[in-house]
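To the structural biology subgroup,

Please find below the input and predicted structure for t-SNARE coiled-coil homology domain-containing protein, which we are adding to the shared reference set this quarter. The sequence is reproduced verbatim from the submission form. If anyone notices a discrepancy with their own records, reply to this email rather than editing the shared folder directly, so we keep one authoritative version.
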Amino acid sequence: MQGVGGAGVGSTGGLVSCEQVSDSIVQYQRNVALLEKMACSVGTKNDTSVLQTQYNLQLDVIHELGQRIENQLRSQESRLITLPRTEASSLRTTHVKLSRDYRLVEQHFKNVQLDVKRKRSLAEAMQRDAARMEEEEGKNKREMGGEDMMAEGMRWQMQIQEDKINEEIMREREEEIKNIHKGMHQVNEIYKVLTDLAHLVDSQQEGIDQIETQMENAQENTATGLRHIEKANESSQSQCVIS
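Predicted structure (tokenized):
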């Protein structure tokens, strides 16, 4: 997103340019991208208390940036009311574009938060399952008095956790592949329609060319026939004179 000209009055009474709003949105977008990078580690072995603290701090930064952009956009909106119609029209176009850009990044930010919430819920459920299984295995160990069964249970537990993670990853990838195939199918359908139209235009043009050729041939035949008739008339008249 590039800065553009124009200005509005800030919430503190200072002048807020469209370049400033655009820069704020770019900064907001970069911080959302950093948050998304952190989100990739949520629910994995790297999801430590340190990561959670960093994630929460990053949320605070993004919320603060978002509030600042909201104030800047509201200030510009108020400024538009006081401007002459012609000047306001140009500035409003820029204002609408900036608002749209911000809302798109804001929606992406919300999607990242929802994804993190889903991953953490899944991780917590897996931890509860693991704790329950560990408790059951401990009970079995005490009852059976064997360590081999406990080791086997832990391996089974780890395998289940890994299978659940792989299953979730596969579901997400399958959904992405479906969306890609859907998009390719739509592109192919559009291309087919365009190709059919092109073939139709070519066919119509060939028909027109044939008609034009036939008309030219008919004109030539008519002219030839007229010349023959004229020659026949001339010959007939000559014979009448001689007689």
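Summary notes: The helical segments are 18-39, 49-82, 85-144, 147-242. The beta strands are 7-9, 15-17.

Regards,
Lab coordination
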